[in-house]
Amino acid sequence: MTTVDELVYLLEAAFSGAGSAESDESQALLVNIGSVDEQMWRSVPLGGARSVESIVLHVGACTVMYDEYAFGAGALTWDDQSWLPWSEGDAPMGATIEWLREVHERFVDHVRALRDTDLAELRPTNWGDLRETRWLISVMLQHDVYHAGEVNHLRSILAADDRWRWG
Fold first, then answer.
1. In the CATH scheme, what is the code of domain 3-14+27-159?
2. Which of 17, 29, 53, 162 is the most buried (most CB within 10 A)?
3. 109: Cβ contacts below 8 Å, ≥ 6 apart
4. Could you state, in order of their start, the residue ranges of all structural domains in the chain?
């Protein structure tokens, strides 16, 4: 197995990986989004600022931008978000999750096409810096897991069912 193969495996695990057979719990982004119902999609808990919808749009938008600059033309901008299919408050749950899958798969396909020797290659970021390809891949993997936890926590608050209580 190559390093690129291993990175693809880890990207897929962070995005949609299976959880524990006993509890069916997972740290993967899609699994946590799947625990959210339509009513929770746009709900914001008291004192909060973000909904699951806004988090999913953010993750998808970041995936598009990282992919565009690391592997594409680097032409998209945050100022002109005409490339984003919906604005917050207008994103239908099912279609938005499907779009998230598509942008993730596009990024993973670009990673899959790499050779191990490409991982140290410097690539542009959407903020103008150059970073090693492996660093960009690592950030995207961490980004999915970070926001998976955020979605899980939001769902727990909105459902008043925090399955991770200790004691």
1. 1.20.120.450
2. 29
3. none
4. 3-14+27-159
